[in-house]
Amino acid sequence: MDVKKELGLKIKRLRQKEGLTQEQFAEKLNIATRTLAGIEIGESFVSAQTIENILSYSNISFEDFFISSHLRPTEDLLNDIYLYLDKIKDNREKIENIYKVIKALSNE
User: Which of 78, 34, 30 is nearest to 57 (CA)?
Assistant: First the structure.
């Protein structure tokens, strides 16, 4: 995946998480809806000012914004989860905590 598409996907997910349309999010970021649409599909590159506006509006850190390991294919993510679980399989407390998190997420 190229950088423009990866950032665009990240921005789209942030917008959707906020429950906003492209028009609403573009207005909050002080950019045109057409510009946001181009960014989200990876046709346009996001400006530094728009990144600052996104970070400010979404209240996320610069570091969190650029972490993209979770954007990999689902199968890869599941394989990583299995590896992490295997590393802690002898730690009952951690396994119980993970169980609680998964159970809570599955009841959403």
Answer: 30
Which burial class, exposed, middle or buried, applies to 57 when counting CB atoms under 10 A from its CB (0-12, 13-18, 19+)? Answer: middle
Is 12 a residue whose pLDDT tops 90? yes
Taking the C-alpha atoms of residue 41 and residue 5, their distance in angstroms, rounded to an integer, is 6
Buried-exposed string 30-41: b where 16+ CB fall within 10 A, e elsewhere: ebeeebbbbbbe
Which residue in this structure is represented by tokens 């190229």? 2
Band of residue 67 on the pLDDT scale cut at 50, 70, 90 = confident
As to burial, measured by CB atoms within 10 angstroms (0-12 exposed, 13-18 middle, 19+ buried), residue 42 is: middle
Higher pLDDT, 76 or 71: 76
* C-alpha span between 67 and 13 (Å, rounded): 13
Residue with tokens 């996001």: 46
Tokens of 30: 């002080």
Which pLDDT value is given to residue 108?
Answer: 65
